[in-house]
Input
Amino acid sequence: MWSRRNFLKSSSLVACSPVVPAFLARTARAAPAGKDTILVMVQLTGGNDGLNTVIPHKHPRYAQYRPTLRVPSSQVKKVDDQFGLHPSLDGFAKLLEKQALGIVHGVGYPNPSQSHFRSMDIWNAGSTAESLSEGWLGKALRQIDGPAFHLAGNNESAPLALEGAPVRAPSVRSLDDFQLKLGTTTGAESRMQKSIIEGSAANTSGDGLLDFVRKTAGNTYDATRRLKEVAANYQPKVPYPQTGLANRLRLAAQLIDAGLGARIFYVSIDGFDTHSGQGGANGPHANLLAEVGNAIAAFYGDLAARGHGERVLIATFSEFGRRAQENGSRGTDHGSGAPMFLVGGRVRPGLIGEHPDLEKLEQGNLRHTCDFRSVYAAICEKWLGVPSEPLLGAKYPAANVFRA
Output
């Protein structure tokens, strides 16, 4: 016969971190928060080539720097007379038509590191300090009523950006990660365990430790049941591409629409370290940009159709850009300033800020014209509703990235 002691010894929640039971109980309590703003960070891992993403197609230096990689003016998705999106960014071009895409020129930081690991840590921490152990989002989560999700690919651990949160953000690959796993071998035993936990949640008569445990168990079980229903019943309002990034963003949409109270989501896509055979209008980099643009466009379209367009912000970033001049292997080497994309119903649409001067390179690199911490400051203060200085270690002027 199964006792409560046997149940507690044999049942568990299978997920990517031991905090998942507490996390799910917390999301259940946070659900009534309602229409709080949501931030979705999309990391482009490897160093995205800004000049092949937002293209200064009319500038004579562009053609000189990119003799084999340049994209002809006739092929770009024009933003204005001087700049255009890469032809594979059709999804972003459609978001721009809907006034839901902001393009922040030349984002970076002083004395940029050319190391993938160091530069990514700087972006994730929001700091150039020598020792970095906490992330800007982890610090923000101390002040936000709601947890975070890391939507992971294969063998991908949670980023530094989320370190320092009061509850460690779980790395999730599917909603199955949150299903209650019971240590039984028969259907009868499984039903008995579920009956025990449901009975424990209902049998609460005070504020003691036992009642707290019972309530937590009940909340956790209810949350897993809700997530199972979401997985089974969710029908996207627009079709998602069959790509890894789109699948992870579709999972984010499921969790957002479930109303569990999460405020921050983090997802990444690798492959942007394009030292050789990068391609111009076509090729590996074009394919990556297509995956990013189409996945984000589907994700935002799905959420907007569900009434979340005004409360979600999607922000892309990469640890650095690429050098202005292509190399001898028809690729590009590590650089500095590059664009960030912001997507949402309250984003200031179009080009934002000043593009790096193609006539004034710094050791072959584009000089940044916008400190990334100014973008973070705007997100903290005007989107998440938290002061930015404690998160970033100094006061940075908030970039003008949102509608007035």
User: Anything to note?
Assistant: The two ends are 65 Å apart (CA to CA).
